[in-house]
Structures are given as structure tokens and as C-alpha cells.
Amino acid sequence: MAVDLVKVQEFARAIQESHKIVFFGGAGVSTASGIPDFRSADGIFLQETGTQYSAEQMISRSFYEQFPSLFFDFYFDKLVYPEVEPSLSHSFLVDLERKGKDVSVVTQNIDGLHQKAGSQQVYELHGSVLNNYCSQCHAFYSLEELEKDPEGIPRCPVDGAIVKPDVVLYEEQLDQATIMMAIQAISQAEMMIIAGTSLNVYPAASFIQYFKGRYLVVINKTSLQVMYPNVLVFEHPIEEVFAEVADILN
Q1: Which of the residues 19, 90, 114, 126 is marked catalytic?
Q2: Top enzyme class of this protein (predicted)?
Q3: Which of 58, 68, 90, 141 gets the most CB atoms within 10 Å of its CB?
């Protein structure tokens, strides 16, 4: 089904009339780059792990501590994609910045693609696979600098301790400073674009309540219940919607 042209024009007009824009994105933003999401039919949570454990169990803090070798085997196989490139969804937001818009990105993704595309203000609620820290001396290591032991566990060459990725696992809390900056960006925005998320992951999904602006746009391939007056909803792939809007803006 084609994207409704009238709604696309309304979306483009809302962008033109807004200066502060906040983009709240989930796993669906990066699927066009080749990274699977979590909860769809082809998502990570429904894939076989090759073990007796579910994917949700394997990306928990307790599993990481108890079975580090299994954790990192799953982590590097399913969650780390160093070769992927940003999609149209990522570049669209950068283009808005180049047009003079004040764009903040609040993302649940851990792939670093928004920064790779060129976005300047990115708040990563669940951290990033690109950042890794020694669990003992806290030395920083990029993804390329990780040195694994024979069991596939990244180790600090200084003290031999496990190098943990700076991602928020199940049973861990979100970074409070990141939360506060994300909420501030949302509360100050004139326009909020929610895309590629089921809004089922808390507390991140509750952030929408802080939006007090004029325009709210929701883009998701499956329907979402968003209780907000005059919300503009697209049940299409994000790239299709952004491509149509970009044609009007350009």
C-alpha cells in the first residue's frame, strides 16, 4: 500500500514549521541497514540460540556474570554489526540538521549508526557496542581494539579483567545522565517523530509523556496505540515515508 500523499504533505509541513525536532527511534530504524530487530517474526528473540537458553536470558546481567563465554558468543554473533552502514532513515535526520533544524536523536539502538551518519546530538538509552570498558581498571577500548581470550571473552591487556561492552543489559538500569538529557530534549521539542519501535520497552517507552510540543508523528510497520491529539500515524517502512517527505522538502 502506497504512503498517503496527503499525510506526507502534512508531515513535511510540520517539519517546515518546527525548529526543535526530537527523533525517538527503536530497532526498526536499523533493519534497513541489515540489523535484525528483536520482536518481529525474524527478530532476534524468535531465533534459535543453539543453547537451552532464550535470547532474553542470554543478554541479561546475571547471564553475563555466570556464563561470560556463552554471553559473548551470542553478543558478537547477534548484536554486533561492525560493517553495516547507515540507511536513509539515519541520513534523513542529518539532512534536517543541514537544513538548519535543531535535531536531537533519542535511540534505543546500540549500533552507533546515527553518529556514523553524522547526527550531532544522540542520546543512546541502551549504550553502544562501539564503547567497551575494562571491568576493573575502566580503560576504554573500541570495538577494533578488543582482544579475546581462547574462550572468546574480551580481556584487558593491562590487568586481564573482562572488558564489558557499554550496553544496558536486562537487569541493569539506564544511565541517569542520558535519561535526563533525553527527557530535556523531548520536553523542549516542537515536534517528535517516533519510529521503528513497539513502545513496549520500559522505561524508554514512557518518555513520550514528556512531549508537550505541537506535532507528533509515529512511523511503524505494525499499528501502535498512541493516545495523543492529532497524532500523524504511518504504518509503513520508515525509509518509504522519509523518502516521500524528503522529495517534498528538497
Answers
A1: 126
A2: transferase
A3: 90
